[in-house]
Amino acid sequence: MSLALKERAEARAQRLTTGIETWVDRETAGCEFKDERLGRRFCKLLGQFGGDMGQSIPLICQDWANTKAAYRFLSNERVNEADILCGHFEATRGRATATEGPILILHDTTEFSFKREKPDLIGFTGKTAGRTQCGILMHSSLAVTTEGLPFGLAAIKFWTRKKFKGTTALKRKINPTRVPIEQKESIRWLENLRQSTDLLAAPGRCVHIGDRESDIYELFCLADEVGTHFLVRTCVDRLAGDGNHTIADEMDEVTVKGLHRIKVKDDKGDPDEALLEIRFRKLRILPPIGKQKKYPALTLTVIHTQERGRPKRRKKIEWKLLTDLTVQSRKDAIEKIEWYSLRWKIEVFHKILKSGCKVEESKLRTAERLVNLIAVFCIVSWRVFWMTMLNRSSPNALPQTALTDPEIRLLDHLVKDRDGDRSRRNTLSHYVVKIARLGGYLARANDPPPGNTVIWRGLSRLTDIGLGAAIEAIIMGN
After folding, report:
1. 3-state secondary structure the chain
2. Each residue of 241-270: pLDDT tens digit?
3. Total-model pTM
4. For residue range 275-317, what is the model confidence (pLDDT) as tens digits?
């Protein structure tokens, strides 16, 4: 252990004994920058960004000296996203290790778009209304419980495109299935699967979940190679059996194995119900014709779920899932369908990044600086999402799970208890609701649990008020 990391560990241990360890301490404990000063600056920046989500760097830093220091950190050649996120990755592994049961790893790609006079400093994504768009693509892997509680990020990959290429025009010239996976952007799915599986060090517990973009035969083979599992939505009607027919041909012969009723929302956000027909079968799946000499056939289970009838105010639900997990009954199939339904949570995480942290409003000029900034915001966004979901999955947990004792005392002073609150006074839910009330949550009897927006607003207000209280204490002390 380096001297800098050892000093930070000793300082963290001291804060633990005094009860004032913060979330920043937990998410940076495993970081080891090339310079001790960079580590200190990162801890300070993470706390500042987490306490004032969505604001510009000058507004967060307040003065030119701190603002300049923030810009220097983000542009420092000795700082990259791996340095920034390594502590969070370690914390993710710690949270996952402390639990039992399956770990669902949700994979998805999102794009951050920016308007710049010199888009070549970032990377091209296309043209809109005659104006060249530039942006950064991010493929993230979020580890969650089967109840949807996010442990944290387990892998992440950033990249840019130096030259925009029309995908449709490219497909006319070459069959994409014959291009080696190493030469395609989709290699990111394989890289993140391997990285996240290695990080959590429990391949048998991990289930990698992806949308139709993850329907990649090489991904299935890699999962088999490293001993982990996958559950993806398919978009390719692959060859099956002896190669004389496809998956669709076999599934047409499968009868409905059961029904499952779920609650959904229509296009206007109103509650609705859907009755799903479930079919499943274990099949021998063949690789693409051009790759059959390189990859083996696999025995996988196909799950088809289709809504009975035709809804009036929303799209009909129809999922075709592919997995290497055991599915022997209707109960097993419903479990896998419910696991896949949690995939949207990574889209919520991306929404917090864009709407809460307002990444795309940043004025930083180069891709390298923007990537460093987004990496910091990823940790901030995870914290908001984690607190929101922790309140729903473990409402009776101790408030110290997510908050420090000074924060708890401040909330008790700021937000008075209501008559119905006293029975939950020593629970996490009690204080998360107080934070949400600072962010505009009304907390009426029939209101749903607070969402991410009121949580991040409330955390920002709590930070501002806490700073004011500290300043007042200093003034009174003098």
Report:
1. CCHHHHHHHHHHHHHHHHCCCCHHHHHHCCCCCCCHHHHHHHHHHHHHHHHCCCCCHHHHHCCHHHHHHHHHHHHCCCCCHHHHHHHHHHHHHHHHHCCCCCEEEEEEEEEEEECCCCHHHCCEEEEECCEEEEEEEEEEEEEECCCCCEEEEEEEEEECCCCCCCHHHHHHHCCHHHCCHHHCCCHHHHHHHHHHHHHHCCCCCEEEEECHHHCCHHHHHHHHHHCCEEEEECCCCCEECCCCEEHHHHHCCCCCCEEEEEEEECCCCCEEEEEEEEEEEEEEECCCHHHCCCCCCEEEEEEEEEECCCCCCCCCCEEEEEECCCCCCHHHHHHHHHHHHCCHHHHHHHHHHHHHCCHHHCCCCCHHHHHHHHHHHHHHHHHHHHHHHHHHHCCCCCHHHCCCHHHHHHHHHHCCCCHHHHHHCCCHHHHHHHHHHHCCCCCCCCCCCCCHHHHHHHHHHHHHHHHHHHHHHHHHHC
2. 999 999 999 999 999 999 999 888 888 888
3. 0.89
4. 999 999 999 999 998 888 899 999 999 999 999 988 888 999 9
- Fold topology of 3-75: Serum Albumin; Chain A, Domain 1 (1.10.246)
Domain residue extents for the chain = 3-75, 212-331, 394-467
Are the folds of 3-75 and 212-331 the same?
A: no
Which CATH number is 212-331's, of 3.20.190.10, 3.90.550.10, 3.30.390.50, 3.90.350.10?
3.90.350.10
